[in-house]
Amino acid sequence: MRAMAGSGVMRAAALVAVLSLPAPAVGAIAGGTPATIAGAAPDAPAAPAPKGQSGRALPSAGVVESTTGAKTPATAAAPHSTPGRGTRSGSNPAASPLAAAAAAEPSSAGISRGGRSPGGSAPVAVIPSSTTPAKAPAPTPPRRVVSVNLCTDQIAMALAAPGQLVSVSHLAREPQSSAMVAEAQRFPVNHGRAEEVYLLAPDLVLAGGYGGASVALLHRLGVPVVEVPPPNSLEDARAAIAQVGAALGREAEAAAMLADFDARLAALSIPTGGDRPLAATWGPNGYSSGGATLAGDVLRAAGFALLADRLGMQGSGYITLEALVMADPALIVTGTPYPGASRAEEIVTHPALSSLSGRIVHVPDPLWTCPTPRLLDALALLAAEARIAAARPAP
């Protein structure tokens, strides 16, 4: 218990020290530069600091992403090719800002068994080389994972090993946003602030594409972060599941989830051929989704054409009530209403909509906000609506 308490005090002290320094000094600490740290000698040789991999940046840090956000270039803190895990900041002394000075001290680790280092006077034992190169050790899966994003929360809860995930964002418990409210009760929640996340001693943080200052500060503190970009298509959703699975060291579990996803998708009865019925998503202030969004891609996969596409919208944007009424789409899709009344939401139930010939269908936001298998529930519902619309006589 004393050791755990001492570790917590040291992390808190390190955090305070880093937050009190200007960015260049913090960068020097995070990068392993020994100068001016804890009295390190200016001429001491700098040992290279351990660097953990971090994935490119799927919605982050305590922010609810839009159900159907615009196509946004993925923000990246590090290369995306292999999302991985870095050194655990709570267990490796070299990863601690307070211990960076220790890395500057000359090391005797260069002395090999059976002899002295090349600079010594005694002979050095010669180890014969092998013709077969040694295999690199497999990366160790992270043991303390913190998720600060609604979508990575849900993927991690589905894929993580028992005890591997130690905290999820508070959004995971909100029924208006999350499809895994019951599962989220098993985990402590965070609000995406770098200070609270750092004190949880994670060896991996899962974030979305909008981490901003919190993710930047975690990087400066040496905490490995994998950023998952917001998905704008079903294919992006598959990539997000694979990325989180790789980051957790749970590739087999992610592959099984994707195989089930593909099997369920193939089993859906989706109308093909003929003219596609017209559909539009309709939210507060006339907010609607275009083709380059997850919701837009799901609607097209279900067999619909998008009103937003006809109006030249690629990502998310706004459609006037007049444009919606004039188009008279076969299907209008509304989302999850929030408690209370607002002028922004009045347009969703405007009396003019009752004059339209199409159907108005409610699809809960949690089904298709995030890249999880629940997307297929939304797709199945919309495919059924597409069959109804296709069978309806033309006006």
Automatic annotation (TrEMBL):
Low complexity composition-biased segments: 41-50, 67-83, 93-111, 119-135
Occurrences of domain Fe/B12 periplasmic-binding (ranges): 144-392
GO biological process, one term: cellular response to iron ion
Residue ranges the record marks as coiled coil: none
Keyword match Signal: yes
Keywords linked to the UniProt accession: Signal
Keyword Signal: yes
Stored PROSITE patterns: FE_B12_PBP (PS50983)
SUPFAM superfamilies per UniProt: Helical backbone' metal receptor
Region (Disordered): 41-141
Signal peptide region: 1-25
Protein's name according to its UniProt entry: ABC-type Fe3+-hydroxamate transport system, substrate-binding protein
